[in-house]
Design goal:
The chain crosses the membrane at residues 48-67, 87-105, 138-159, 165-182. The protein is an all-alpha fold. It contains 10 helices and no strands. Helix content is 74%, strand content 0%.
């Protein structure tokens, strides 16, 4: 017979549709890895970079969509706060995405840095704006990374090795993750109303 911890984890996973999120994250990684290995893409480093940026946005969007609770009342009425589940959820999906990037993508360091930055921004946006639109600010982060590199693919590719690459990404992830873990996703209004 399952104990209270296992039934709490199961309830949390069901309320966030985590099996669907894991499946979507896996499909995103497989598609990105396949796209990066296409002959026309592999021969052009800028195209590979474009695939990696799209993958990071896709991974952050999948993680952000999974932060939405179908039954938001669960968080407010639970006997125990769900911050531990939120933390495990965010770390688990982000860690899975980072591992997939490290194994499958040709620029693993850049993929992980972008995924951390985009996921942190997405988690903060879920807490402030709601999980349904939380992917939008991650698009801004990817755009800022592109503008900061001056449109130079080599500069963007070198971002993780630069002085602020990892620290900026980790700071964004930590701040956004902490905000989401403490507050949870902002409740959405009624559908159609």
């Amino acid at each position: 017979m399952p104990g209270p911890t296992s039934s709490g984890a199961l309830l949390y996973a069901r309320s966030r549709a985590l099996p669907h999120a894991l499946a979507a994250a896996g499909v995103t990684a497989v598609l990105a890895a396949g796209a990066a290995r296409l002959p026309g893409v592999r021969a052009e480093p800028d195209r590979v970079l474009f695939v990696v940026v799209l993958w990071a946005l896709g991974a952050a969007s999948v993680i952000g969509a999974s932060l939405h609770a179908e039954c938001a009342e669960l968080d407010g009425t639970a006997a125990r706060r769900w911050w531990r589940w939120r933390l495990a959820h965010l770390l688990g999906l982000t860690g899975s995405a980072a591992c997939a990037a490290a194994v499958a993508l040709p620029t693993p360091a850049l993929a992980v840095v972008l995924a951390l930055a985009c996921t942190g921004v997405t988690a903060a946006a879920a807490a402030l704006l709601g999980a349904r639109v939380c992917w939008l600010p991650a698009v801004v982060v990817a755009g800022v990374a592109g503008v900061a590199s001056g449109g130079d693919a080599g500069a963007l590719r070198a971002w993780p090795a630069g002085p602020g690459g990892w620290s900026v990404a980790l700071a964004l992830f930590a701040a956004g993750g902490a905000l989401h873990v403490v507050r949870g996703a902002r409740p959405e209004g009624p559908r159609g109303g």
